[in-house]
Design brief:
Layout: H1 2-18, H2 25-36, H3 55-58, H4 61-69, H5 71-77, H6 81-88, H7 103-116
Helix pairs in contact: 2-7, 4-7
Length: 119
């Protein structure tokens, strides 16, 4: 009986883990068009910031969520090797985007980036 409970708990946790960033891609697109498109392309070409192609395969959802929610803090800390590498080639520091302080908006953005990854 105890084994069955453990297995069921593992299944629930595994299924729940995938839905933590199940946002609305259409809402994410609206935010991207309004706040991100000026500096970022969806392909791999560089504008002011890097292109977004492949970002959701190179970075975990958790990392993207943290980056979108606290870009300034991650840059200032200087401890994340990915951030250090990104900043080496950066023309400017990515500003704090007010909409990204909301977890639902970050989930929407991640959903949009996943839907458009590779374009």
């Amino acid at each position: 009986m105890r084994i069955k409970a453990v297995v069921m708990t593992m299944v629930v946790v595994a299924l729940g883990a995938g839905s933590a960033y199940a946002g609305d891609a259409a809402k994410g697109q609206a935010i991207f068009e309004k706040k991100c498109k000026t500096c970022h392309n969806l392909d791999d070409s560089v504008k002011v910031g890097p292109g977004m192609k492949g970002v959701t395969t190179r970075r975990a959802d958790e990392w993207l969520d943290k980056w979108l929610g606290d870009t300034k803090g991650m840059i200032a800390a200087g401890t994340d090797p990915t951030v250090v590498e990104i900043m080496k080639g950066a023309k400017v520091k990515m500003p704090t985007v007010k909409e990204m302080t909301d977890a639902a908006n970050r989930a929407d953005m991640i959903a949009f980036l996943k839907k458009n990854d590779g374009k």
